[in-house]
Hints:
- By secondary structure, the chain is mainly α.
- Helix content is about 85%, strand content about 0%.
- It has helices spanning about 1-40, 50-90, 105-160, 170-205, 210-265, 275-315, 330-385, 395-430, 435-490, 500-520, 520-535, 535-565.
- It starts with a helix and ends with a helix.
- About 20% of the residues are buried.
- The model has no long low-confidence stretch (mean pLDDT about 85).
Amino acid sequence: VGGRRIGKLVGKLMENEKLKNDFEALVSNLLEWIRSSTVRLSDLNLPNSLQGIQDEVAAFTIYRTQEKPPKYTEKGNLEVLLYQLHMKLIESRQKPYSPPDGKTVHDVNTAWIKLEKAEHVREEALREELIRQQKLEQLAARFLRKADLREVWLEDNQRLVSVDDFGDDLPAVEAALKKHEAVCTDMKAYEERVAAVKQLAEELVKENYHDKDEVKKRSDKVQQDWSELLELADSQRQRLDVAMGLYSAFHEMNSIFDWIDEVKPKVNDDEVAKHLTGAQDMLQKHKLLEGDIAAQADRIKNVNAQAQKYADMAPADGTDGGYGVFAPDKEIIQGRQQELGDEYDALVREAAERRTLLERSLELQQFMRDAEQQDSWIRDGVRVVTSEDYGHDLRSAIHLQEKHKAHEAELVGQRPRFRVVCDSGNDLVERGHYAGDVITGRVRQLENNWCELEAQSEQRKKRLNESVALQQYLADVNEASSWLDDMEQLVSSEDYGRDEASAEALFKNHQAVQEDLQAYRSTITSLEEQFEQLSPQDKTQAVELQTSVNKRYRHLLELARERAR
């Protein structure tokens, strides 16, 4: 019995000792796990990727759901085990068990608290990093999407501004310039989008995105493509400006060529006016045309200066000078300049020749007008001097004579004007006027008409003088006839007086009559002289009158002698 009791006591002691060892081993293992887990959880050097963080979150979840709960159970079992050990020690009347330092429940609880804190910190860190990585992945996806779009857009536009499909005329170049300006406008609007790619990349790099090197590489490529696009656009704009300027100059030259072709028929026209007003009008219009031609000189000067600028830009080394197919060709440009200058100079010469022709035409028509005015004056003069009216009496004959003298004065006054017209015509002929034969004929006609007028005027003067002489003679004859009639009454009177005194008085009167008759002989003689001065035609008309006057005068003398006896 004593042995069994001793054996039972030893068994309990051994069991208690085992419980102590198990407790301490369990505490050591648990503390080791707690410490290692705390160290592991306290390591916040988390993976720099979403997948890495997701793996860490998964591992943390496994820790919390699979690894930690058994350890928490173990922690709870420690207290139970320590209580059981304590109760068995009391039952065995052994002194109470005190775990060694570092292996107490308190040590476990303290370590567990640290573990809980580390766990909480890791949980927060994982949550924040997960959110950050998710945001970075979203930002990276956004960056990649924008980078892809920008690269495609930049590639397309680089292709656009690299192809110099400007066309071969000004409208095509203008259309290409508008297209280029539209591309540049899009580029200006796109600049912010390109900058946005760079900003996204900088943000990803700043946030230490796991693929930041690739992001930076893509961003740099976008920026490089953008810079190349700007350079290509600027280079194409320079080529476009050259093409635009050159084609503008050529277009302006073609416009001037067209204008010259339009004007040429006008300056090469041989038509001249048929009258003075038409000649004046044609010359005036031509002067206006010459003004337009002269105004083109500045236009040609400007376009030549514009073209010369591009001629000077032409590469001298045989290369395109960076201008591509639109490199200025100095030989072509100078050839167009020379052609334009020659065409314009020819037009100026032809316009001057046309002006000379029109001036000659105007001179001809002015001469013809002046000649016609002289001819009209001569015709009017001829109508006057060929009049058959020489007066029906002395008064009208003298009036017509005076009127003819006035006409002769007009003729004398007109002669210088007449000579001016003829001399101007002769001067035109001497200067080789194209209508020289016509002018010569007209001058000769004028001179003949003038000579005819002078001859007719002289003839009329003669006829008027003869008419005045005749009318003067007739008037004097009539007066003489009246005087002879009066004398005939006196010398034919049958009254010889009634007595001596009356007879004496009659005799004295008769002597006075005889004296008058004798004195009248001078009048009769003057009449005879007037008669002799008459024209033969007028003498025939007046011969009977003169004979009658002479006969009557002689008869009166005879009657006077008989009455005196």
